[in-house]
Write a structure and sequence with these properties.
Helix content: 25-40%
Distance between the termini: 68 Å
Number of helices: 2
Number of strands: 6
Radius of gyration: 19 Å
Number of domains: 2
Strand order of the largest sheet: 1-3-2
Strand content: 15-25%
Largest sheet: 3 strands, antiparallel
Length: about 110
Amino acid sequence: MRIAPVRRAVAAVVVAFGLMAVALTGAEAVGLGQTCGGTFRFACGSGLWCDWPAGKCAAADVQGKCVEISAACPKSTRPVCGCDRKTYGGDCERVRAGVQKDHDGACK
């Protein structure tokens, strides 16, 4: 009986579970512009928000991109509707509120 291939397979499974545990606990944050969320729920680093594609309000395991949370938002004339069904003055205000985007334009 060959034990070496079995040990290698067990070691590979242990490593995979270890990597999953790091991802699920948020121990490894990702940076600006990197992919976040998804099955492994990669979290964005400090001062960043995981912004999903518009219209994914009720979806599970959505991947987004880490965007910066601005200290102040410029005046905007492009309202957006958040997944909380509130209209925001623009994407900057929505991101500062910590809300995903449902669609461009005011909520109905």
